[in-house]
User: Fold this.
Amino acid sequence: MHFALESKLQGGLHAFEQRLARRTLPVPVSSQTDRDNLVDFTTNDYLSLTRLPALRNKFLQKLTDAPNILGSGGSRLLVNGEAHAALEKRLAKFFNSPIALIFNSGYHANVGFFSCVPQPGDVIVYDEYVHASVHDGMKASRVEKARRIAFKTNSVDDLRRVLLGVRKMLKEKSAGMGGDTSSVFVSVEALYSMDGTIAPLTEICDTLEELFPAGNAYLIVDEAHSAGIYGPQGRGRVAQLALEHRVLVRLVTFGKALGATGAVLLTNELIRDYLIHHARSFIFTTSLSYSNIIAADASFDLLMDGTGERQSARLQENCVYLVTTMQKRLSTLGVAPKLLSIPPELCIERPGSNPPSPILPLLTSQARALSDYLRSLGIIALHVTWPAVPMGEDRVRVSLQAGHTREDIDRLVKGAVGWALQVAEKESKDSGASRSAGQRYEVAYASKL
Assistant:
C-alpha cells in the first residue's frame, strides 16, 4: 500500500482513538463453556426465539420438505423464487397490508424507499434519531437538502412546528402555479434502537391529518425493533394502535426479535411497483437465499401459534423489573449522573403510559470502561459511541431478552452500580469517610436482595 494512502487511513483511525471511540469487532464466544458462563445483554434476539428448540425443529423440517434451499439464483427481477413470493403473500395477510416486498435487510429497504419514492419538490421530515439507513436514502434521493428537515425526537410539538413551516413554504411555492403538487414524507421509528423510547404514533398521525387534510402527507414507520414484541401476535406498534390504514409504509425486519435475516416493506401496490423499477438496493443485488426465506417463515409460524406472545410477555416483565430495579438502586445509592444514569423518560412512574421497552441505555461518560468491567464479571453489554449516537451521549446499550432470568438482571444491576461507586470512590477527596462507597454499596445492595 502506498504510504500516502496508508497515512490518510491511519490518520482517520487516529481521530477515533483520540476520542476513545476506536471500534473493534467483539471477541467471538468460542466455546460452549464460555457461552454458559456469559450473560449476553447485547444481541437483539428480544424474544429469545433462536434459543427455542421449537424454532430450530420447524426450520429443519421446512428445510427437509423444501424443493430449494441453497442460493436464490440472482436478483428477484431474474429469478422470483416461489418461496419468496409465498412469504410476501403470507406477510401481507399477516400484517393486514395490501402488499409486501422483501428486501435483503432493513438497511436495503430504507435506502431503497427514501432514495427513489420521494420526488423532486417533495419534503422529507424525519425524527432526529432515525436510523442511518434513512439518512443514506435521503442523501441519494432527488429531494434537495433544504427540504430534508429534522424534528426533535418523539416531540409532537416540534413536529407540528416543522410541519407548519413546511405547509407555509409549500403554499408560497405553489402560489400562482395552479396548486401545490408536493408530498410530505414523515419518517419515524416505532422503537428507537439506541434510546429505547417509543414514538407517539397516534398523535403523529393525528397531526399529519390535521395539518394536511388533502392527504398529501405520509407516515413511514420503521418497526425494526418493535415487530414481534408488540401488538396482536407480534404485528408491531402500528397494529397495536390500529393504524394500519393511516400509515403509508411499514418496515419490518426479520433479524431482531424474529431471529432470522431480511426485511419486508408493507405498503400498497403502486409503491411496490415503483420500488421494483427504481430501488437500486432491490434491483442490483442477489436476493435472500431460499434457506433465509425458510428461516423467516419458521419464525412467523411461532408468532402465529402464540409462542411469540408468550415470549413477549416474559420479555416485558423483564423490562419492568430491570428499569424499576436500576432506578431504585441509583436513587437510593446516590450515584452521580455523569457516572451512571438512565433516561428519565424510561423510568416507570406511570405504568400503562407506554409499553415497556427492551432497550435500556446506561448513560455514562466512561462507557468503554463500564463495558470492560461488566465483561470481567461475565456480562456482555457493549459500549456505543459516535456516530451511532450523538457526540457526548455515549452509553452501554442493554438489550433485554425473554430468556434472561431475574438473577441475570440482578447481576447486571449490581455490576453496573458497583462499578460507578468504585469510580466515585477513586475520584472522591473525602478520605475521612468511615466507610468506602464500595463498602456502602455492598451492604446496601445485599440488604435489598
About this structure: The radius of gyration is 24 Å. The chain has a mean pLDDT of 90. The first strand starts at residue 39 and ends at 40. The chain has two domains: 25-46+308-448, 55-304.
